[in-house]
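Aim 2 progress. For NADPH-dependent FMN reductase, the working sequence is reproduced below.
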Amino acid sequence: MTPKILVFAGSIRTGAFSGKTADAAMKELAQQGSEVTRISLADYPLPIMDQDLEKEKGIPDNAYRLGRLIAAHDGVLIASPEYNASIPPLLKNTVDWISRVSKDGGKPLRPWTGKPVGLCSSSDGNFAGIRGLYHLRAVLMNCKADIITQQCSVARAQDAFDENGNFKDDRTRGMMEAVCSSLIERARLTSTRVGA
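Predicted structure tokens for this construct:
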């Protein structure tokens, strides 16, 4: 089975380090034999999570669209920046809205439950966004996602990529290879892809 992996960044800023990290992950996942779908959260705008809004208007269509995409893939890789040592608000809001999806057209749909997820981070400092991943890991585990142990954290990201978007540093490249390999292996073992 060729695993299908969904890849996105937790930032939509032009030139975001997390976007470059997601692109590097996409290349590595493809090289290791998976079928990759790369999306931008800019294409799935969502209002701030608000249960009054949900009660009044229901779960937004873009939350369902993202939920269906996650369900249609064997695994997910998220490349996140770090804001104030935690999860960026765009990503937290997206995860929260998707977690509200439990049915789609009367059929059960719990996108995060049991879904293998690989995590990457990046920052312009030496901590490489690791503190944000600690929180992201906890949130996704609460959503019952299956988080891969290995992760790739890109330190001093402004200097980490060459002109082709590849990592200059062997250590960072090795971390990316490891998280992608583990995600593919877990995805093959636990595929719950809707429509697979």
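The domain at 4-190 is CATH 3.40.50.360 (Rossmann fold). This observation will guide construct design in the next reporting period.
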